User: Fold these one by one.
Assistant:
Number 1:
Amino acid sequence: MHEVYLSLGGNIGNKKNNFIQSYQLITKHVGETIVSSAIYETPPWGFQSKDNFWNQVIKVQTELSPQKMLEQIQLMEKQLGRKYTKEGYESRPIDVDILYFDNLILETENLIIPHPLIQNRKFVLVPLAEIAPDFIHPVLKQTNIQLLEKCKDDSEITKIEK
């Protein structure tokens, strides 16, 4: 059984409903959620939008391989209305990123684990540090708390619900 940290985020549509449906699809197709952070409201990162994001990190147990998990996540995102373009960052109903997969270090054409931008994103580090403060990033060799303390992202993060 693998332990995986996933980041959930979305800024369009019914955010609460999108998150509820995401949890249901993750449970059905990926694995059981062991722990979840609070949900945080954050501004868009890397692009402009009038709609703020909801962000959360969850820890799941799965028997899937990293590649199979990515396939299931992308199917789920499409089912919930996510459209993929080559334009870069944009508004979306739901986005699920694999942050950590056990202590695995993996780099393929379509998947990098740990996620290469964890240390730059306060919207990921705040909820990640909430549920896994002492987890050590397998590449950077620092805990999530240490990464958060060094993060240069000055975005405003507001806890909205547990």
Number 2:
Amino acid sequence: MQELRMNTPEHYDLSDLEPSGSDVLPMESRIGGYLAFVLALIVVAMLPLTPPTAAIGSAGWLVVGAMLIPTLGVAAAMLADLGIWTFGRILAVSYFQLAILTVLIWLAGGWDTPYPRVMMVMILYVALIQTRRRISVFLVAVAIVLALPVLYDGWNPNAAANIIGTISVWIVLAIGTYKLTEIQRQQRIELHRTSRAAKLEARVDNLTGIGNRRAFEEALDDEIARSRRLSTPLSIVIADIADFKLINDTWGHLEGDRALVCVASAISGEQRGPDRSFRWGGDEFTVILPGADGDGANVVAARLRLAVRTSCLRPDAKPIEIRTGTAALCEGISAEELLSRADAGMLALHR
């Protein structure tokens, strides 16, 4: 398995993205919201035991209250699944929480307070979803925050040793969390790629290499919906090989297969950019023509007949002919009715 480069956007592949594919993260944001509420409750529970009065006295309570209100607001916004949370915004929330803890540690008296320990939860959350570079920068910021009490409380060897030991343990935990997440994400990406490849393979005709009937039906439904949404024309061409049974009966099924491959190649070669061709079944082919009205479809059908006639030959050197029918999408008709009209048009033209 090729190692996934976790500092690239592929690191974020198969996170809990919305079906639209936008960089919106309902699961990650909800986890962050729950953690923010839990951290706020932990802080509130510790405040009576370690009050924020060491630095500025009783005014520290007002500062803590002013910080807790936006913290709870952000947590509520993350839980509300507003569709606004991206990896960058989630990381910004983590830095916001780190800044609040920095102020709280200072208010309560420095390293000896229990508040620095709360940072471990934040580190694990960042390590769970962010890239290696972002995790490293966040760890540096945490180390700086832990070292700040040394500046305003003075040098203390025991405090310095505790800081070094604590940040070392947290780095190890962050690395372990990151590596486990990396392995899981790699497995999910490979599974997704395998599933996507299998899905594509299930929609390709094995003999001709163009889309099969299932792919045609899905594509037609999509194009009909797009045509009606954008008020643009849409047409289809249906074609089959004239006297195909004669080819099989006279020269065998291998020659029949060769004829099918040649016809499919000729039809595909005449496609415009948005057109898509399919083997509908047996010796029948279909072409979806986005942006083409009925007259445009007739022009394409004539071009397809000429392309097959000039490039595909039977074993007796006679040209292979195809019969075609066209239909344009009208208001109120279904995909089945569109196909039925094209099929009826083909039969009417070649009786």
Number 3:
Amino acid sequence: MRKLISLIILSLLIISACEKRVENEANSFSLEVVKETQKVPEDLAKAIKSVEPFFKLMGKPKPDEWLARFKEDGQTFEQYINSNPTLPTEERKIIYVQPIGKFNSEQQKVIKLTAEYIENHFGLTVKLLPIQKLKEPLSLENYRINQFSKNKQIRTGFVMDNLLRPNLPKDAAALIAFTNEDLYLDKSFNFVFGQASLENRVGVWSLYRFNDEHNFDKFLTRTIKIAVHETGHMFSIAHCTKYECVMSGCNHLGETDKHPIDACPECIAKICWFSKIEPKKRYEKLAGFCNKNGLNVEAKEFREKVKAVN
């Protein structure tokens, strides 16, 4: 038995809740060898050291920021290894992205591009599935009308338990759903951006509150940040407290916007270790993605990281 981190994004907060779970699959990436040394492999350590100048150390949080409200210690590479993390395995090494509901052309484009970014970020194959319709009418236990916003909202548990878990592919490291519906967890929550389960390898995120009709790039980068942040949690990566990082906790969209779309050196070590991707190759792919999609500032920084790890 070990802890399950069930990751829930509340209003503009991401809240972690712990439960017990049983791990049914063995990790497949020489975990015991790394445990003996409890150190980042030498070649990987050298590469991540070279990109430290690209990341700002986490300063004192402002009163409205995540670390001012939630006291967290962060997670080193050694702590990550010793936590017996949920990892991709030889049998489960594909990330599936499942759009559910109705989407306009811009939203479909954001989902497609986010799926591409997830693949380059984690160094794992991502498969974008055809849009699945949300069958209605839903029972009263699975949707509600928000008493404040008057929005129709879908319960996250319904999506995960009824739509995702029964359709989890046998080779799925994770099955991630995107919806344009507003979401809620239970009656105690006003709304949530999403919820994920490590035990069941499923999660659902909503685009409803991220769309910025006047700034496509902001809509895209916000979606990318939330998607890779929560997918990182599904692979047991905790919130980063050392650097301004895509894995840092966020209390509001303003805090999300100031974080980079990349993982810091501490978190890169975990990603490159479990995906077996070389940092240089990872940065090259991310630079190519950003350059192709007009994220020029990010593309330039990724190209500089390629040079740094040479």
Number 4:
Amino acid sequence: MIFLKKLNIANFKNLKSVELSFKNKYICFAGNNGVGKTNLLDSIYYLSIGKSYFNSIDKQNILHKENYFNLKGSYSRKDENIEIFCAFTNRKKITINGNNLEKLSDIVGEIPIVIVTPYDNTLITGGSEERRRFLDMIISQLDKNYLINLVEYNRTIKQRNAQLKILFENRSKDTSLIEVYNTKLIETGSFIFEKRKSFLENFTTKFYNYYSIISENKEDVQIAYASQLKNNDFEEVLKSGFEKDLITQRSNFGIHKDDLELFIFEHPAKKFASQGQQKSFLLALKLAQFDIIKEIKKIKPLFLLDDIFDRLDKNRATQLLDIITKNGYGQIFLTDTNATRVNDVFKKIGKEIEIFNVENGNIINN
């Protein structure tokens, strides 16, 4: 199990100076909206992934009128201690046990993490980009080669799109550079496609299991992996689609168009699922994410839950906490506006929780 023992924050969002020590498996940050509870969770997420969950532009995460932020987390991981330090001034710096990372992406997977926030409903109601990002973040925590290929694929797409624009504006017929980019896209894209397909075979089984528990077997749901590579040869699709790409000045074919299609009673969930059903979809996706990381990494990820009692009805929230406190989950951090409500729920499920009150960026241990 991963256990976050200490958290130090300087100038991150509205958090000027924070030094916290955690002794419990279950931690709650309680306080009114806008005081910094979610920012505390985001700092923990940042230390795992190397970027904010809510705003990937580092400069915008610095406290107003300051010119830097620092984050430090001290963890126990299996039988070892690990310290992660993240800082941003004019550039980002990340160290693990004092050693600078050559590639910032190398932090991904060191401290596996799952987060549930009110904004995550876009996984159900939003466009395909949200679901691809969700899928990519899980697999990237499990497989370094996947992340390497994904970064290279996305870089190549940008380069290819820029070249398409040049060819269109110059009315040029020189496609030699496009062919180089096509070769790179086929190599990296095919790898990503196979990884996604293999991953989803396991992931969907876990998703169905959790959705069944949450909905008490009352609803029929499906997940389908939609990809242009399923029934097409990537090289042929790129060649045959070149004229369309040239006219639109962007790459219209590839794994950057993939989607996870979600259905309820054979209808698209984004249009036909009720708010309660959408929440059930979301919870089942996140619980399946936790399970598969734990299974493959052989370690329990940190679990962050933001404002679940305000966004879920009390029964659904209690059911979620009952699931994650009884089924081998690790350290859990949650936020709520009502410390008494959290205390009552944890008493009901027979667990002790450590509560920190948050007021305008200041944190007091109850």
